[in-house]
Write a structure and sequence with these properties.
By secondary structure, the chain is mostly helical. It folds into two domains: about 35 residues; about 80 residues, Rossmann fold, CATH 3.40.50. It is about 45% helix and about 10% strand. It contains four helices and three strands. A three-stranded mixed β-sheet has the order 1-2-3, covered by helices on one side. The longest helix has 23 residues. The termini are far apart.
C-alpha cells in the first residue's frame, strides 16, 4: 500500500498492470483497412473510363457550384464516362445526381449536356466511393 491518498495501492496496481494487447488491436485495424482497400479496388476494377469528383460537403443545392457539379457529371455520363465520388453530401451528392439523371435520360440521345428537369433519388454509398456508370 502506498502512503498518501488512501487509494495509492489500487493506483499503483493499475500502473504496474501489464498493458493490453496493443499489437492485436493494430492487426485488427490493419485487417479492416486492407478489406476496405480491397473492396474499393474490386468496385473500381471494371471501370475503363472514369472521372473522380470530390468536393466540399458544405455546398448546398441551389449554389452555383452544386449545379455546376451536377451538370458536369451529367455531361461526363452522356459522353460515356463513369462518375466516381466519395458518396458524401454537397458537391459529391450533386455529381451523383447529375450522373444518375443523365444515365436515366441517356436513351433520349440528346446532343446537349444539360440534365433534365426531373429529379431522381441521389445514390449513396456505405463504402469509400460511389460510382455511376452510364446506362447501356
Amino acid at each position: 500500500m502506498s502512503i498518501g491518498d488512501g487509494n495509492g495501492g489500487r493506483h499503483d496496481e493499475r500502473l504496474l498492470r501489464v498493458p493490453v494487447d496493443k499489437e492485436g488491436d493494430d492487426e485488427r485495424r490493419l485487417d479492416r483497412i486492407r478489406k476496405e482497400i480491397d473492396g474499393a479496388f474490386h468496385a473500381l476494377r471494371d471501370i475503363d473510363e472514369g472521372v473522380s469528383i470530390f468536393g466540399s460537403a458544405r455546398v448546398e443545392q441551389g449554389h452555383r457550384w452544386y449545379e455546376l457539379a451536377r451538370e458536369t457529371a451529367a455531361c461526363l455520363t452522356h459522353h460515356g464516362y463513369s462518375v466516381i465520388t466519395g458518396g458524401g453530401p454537397g458537391l459529391m451528392e450533386a455529381a451523383n445526381r447529375g450522373a444518375s439523371e443523365a444515365a436515366a435520360s441517356r436513351s433520349a440521345s440528346t446532343s446537349s449536356c444539360r440534365t433534365s428537369s426531373r429529379s431522381t433519388p441521389t445514390s449513396t454509398a456505405s463504402s469509400s466511393s460511389t460510382t455511376s456508370s452510364p446506362a447501356s
